[in-house]
Specification:
43% strand, 1 helix, mainly beta, SH3 type barrels
């Protein structure tokens, strides 16, 4: 989910690695994030993939939801730290 007009801010590298680990372990995760309108949302799903497209990082959930990584607030009660 792109946020129009807002440049992408890379997330903390260690946190990115943690997202990949949850995806590999197929962990059902609780994800808190801001949607494209700036509203806080919460979903529970498995992370299927963490990837970059046009220099923006995303994660795709098993329910089809795609989340831009710089819109994350917390995953599995672990808050997103400062950017790289």
């Amino acid at each position: 989910m792109d946020t129009p007009g807002k440049p992408y801010q890379p997330i903390n590298c260690d946190y990115y690695d943690r997202l990949e680990a949850w995806a590999t372990m197929r962990t059902i995760s609780t994800i808190v994030f801001y949607d494209e309108k700036g509203n806080q949302q919460e979903v529970s799903a498995r992370i299927e993939d963490v990837y970059a497209l046009n220099k923006v990082e995303y994660m795709r959930m098993d329910n089809g939801l795609v989340i831009r990584l710089d819109s994350l607030i917390a995953v599995n009660n672990v808050p997103l730290p400062n950017h790289c």
